[in-house]
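in:
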């Protein structure tokens, strides 16, 4: 039971999908189970690169949908209301009549219809939510202030199966009462759990459920007695502890992806759940990256929210390394919406500007930058020559030779201290594969990128306990950020140390291979037998 949903941007990062791939590759019969509404499920499965995986949706069961494939409704098939003026952008189509919005079509991938809103003269709205197989899945009634008054679920023919009022109570329509145990339910979760238990009855499967699924507590409590084993896949960061299992429910197991995630849970909640295990969701595989010579001195850093003073010292220390080594290149993965990440970037830029005595807001610097962007293949000296000529024609004061050098040095330093905030998961992996060293400054490192670094053969540095690092051989476990520059030098400036890390990583790949992981899962399935 994976946790990705209709809004998930990076489905490929789903732990549930990663574990499912391991089972499928080793001949296990698996099924993805979705316990929540998912109108664009097929689009998301395609985005996760598993378009033909076996799956079951509780809302398909509720709504009597007995087919898996279908063709989505597209904008070309939407009826244009009479006497309306359309306005279309990549994600929406608006239809106005005499200046009033009467219809709003929401789009996915520019053409696929996900929702259509119909407005009356009083601004009340009826919203049809479309399944990506081409039919209306749910219909919502909203008042003029956007408050939901009721909601109905429809079958593919357009008949209403059940309706939920503002109170949350559910009524089953008479034509479908034979499909349910009751005609009235207190809430939607009662309907969902009834269908889930029916689906599992008689099969007693092993259920692996991500802790991040919606309504986890309710599903966990209700489904545990209905399965042979309940295995909870824990995320790296947990907001609340797992509830204790009653004595009669000792068939549940907790699986952390890494030892670091397990230790973080222990630190946060002071006690580990009973039957806690560590099994990675991502297998390693031999895919050695660029050679040490080709990788140059590329260092990829996944930044974490450090203490403010520690972060400022780190920014200064890394800049000093950059100034002292013309081959060093930092590529930092940051979250552009987190204040601490933005502040770290600003401190780096401030230190570069201080070092070379020129601001990035300086008009001459910006002229150089703009011209350089127009001709990225031109040398920096050629760009300066061009600016000299341009300034002369415009009768502007020329840039002095001293300032020219300041601008070039500052520009080069900023080029070699890159910040990346919107990379796809594939692009992040490619960055690590082309690096000389990978550093993760988060309390719980990114397990997927750690496996990529291991598989690529490069050393890595991370906080706390690590399943992948032998200190001073193929990396370091970090306790004090102030030690980081010395650790970077250890691997970047020594081919002997780097080669020793490569040899150790090749050994480690076997320990974390798909074969080793499936053996670990099989041992868990047979635990206590």
């Amino acid at each position: 039971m994976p946790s990705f949903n209709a809004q998930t941007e990076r489905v490929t990062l789903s732990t549930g999908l990663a574990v499912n791939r391991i089972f499928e590759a080793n001949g296990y019969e698996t099924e993805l189970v979705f316990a929540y509404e998912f109108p664009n499920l097929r689009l998301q499965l395609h985005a996760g690169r598993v378009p033909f995986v076996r799956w079951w949706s509780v809302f398909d069961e509720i709504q009597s949908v007995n087919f898996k494939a279908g063709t989505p409704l597209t904008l070309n098939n939407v009826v244009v209301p009479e006497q309306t003026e359309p306005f279309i952008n990549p994600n929406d189509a608006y239809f106005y009549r005499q200046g009033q919005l009467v219809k709003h079509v929401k789009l996915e991938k520019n053409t696929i219809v996900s929702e259509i809103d119909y407005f009356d003269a009083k601004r009340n709205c009826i919203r049809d939510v479309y399944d990506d197989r081409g039919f209306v899945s749910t219909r919502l009634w909203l008042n003029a202030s956007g408050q939901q008054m009721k909601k109905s679920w429809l079958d593919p023919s357009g008949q209403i199966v059940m309706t939920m009022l503002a109170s949350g109570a559910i009524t089953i329509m008479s034509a479908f009462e034979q499909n349910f145990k009751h005609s009235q339910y207190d809430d939607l979760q009662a309907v969902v759990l009834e269908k889930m238990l029916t689906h599992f009855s008689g099969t007693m499967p092993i259920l692996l459920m991500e802790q991040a699924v919606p309504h986890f507590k309710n599903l966990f409590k209700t489904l545990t007695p209905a399965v042979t084993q309940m295995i909870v896949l824990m995320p790296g960061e947990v907001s609340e502890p797992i509830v204790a299992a009653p004595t009669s429910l000792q068939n549940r197991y907790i699986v952390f992806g890494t030892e670091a995630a397990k230790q973080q849970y222990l630190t946060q909640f002071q006690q580990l759940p009973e039957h806690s295990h560590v099994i990675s969701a991502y297998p390693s595989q031999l895919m050695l990256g660029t050679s040490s010579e080709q990788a140059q001195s590329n260092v990829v850093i996944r930044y974490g929210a450090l203490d403010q003073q520690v972060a400022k010292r780190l920014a200064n220390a890394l800049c000093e390394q950059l100034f002292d080594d013309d081959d060093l290149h930092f590529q930092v993965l940051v979250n552009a919406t987190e204040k601490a990440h933005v502040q770290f970037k600003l401190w780096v830029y401030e230190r570069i500007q201080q070092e070379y005595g020129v601001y990035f807001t300086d008009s001459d610097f910006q002229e150089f930058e703009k011209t350089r962007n127009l001709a990225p293949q031109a040398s920096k000296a050629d760009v300066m020559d061009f600016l000299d000529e341009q300034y002369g024609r415009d009768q502007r004061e020329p840039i002095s030779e001293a300032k020219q050098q300041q601008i070039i040095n500052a520009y080069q330093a900023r080029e070699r201290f890159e910040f990346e905030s919107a990379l796809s998961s594939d692009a992040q992996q490619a960055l690590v594969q082309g690096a000389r060293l990978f550093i993760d400054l988060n309390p719980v490192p990114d397990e997927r990128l750690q496996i990529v670094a291991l598989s690529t053969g490069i050393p890595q540095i991370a906080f706390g306990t690590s399943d992948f690092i032998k200190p001073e051989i193929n990396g370091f476990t970090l306790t004090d950020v102030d030690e980081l520059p010395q650790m970077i030098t250890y691997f970047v400036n020594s081919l002997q140390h780097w080669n020793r890390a490569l040899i150790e990583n090749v050994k480690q790949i076997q320990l974390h291979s798909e074969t080793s992981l499936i053996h670990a899962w099989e041992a868990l399935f047979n635990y206590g037998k």
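note: The domain at 75-189 is CATH 2.20.110 (Histone H3 K4-specific methyltransferase SET7/9 N-terminal domain).
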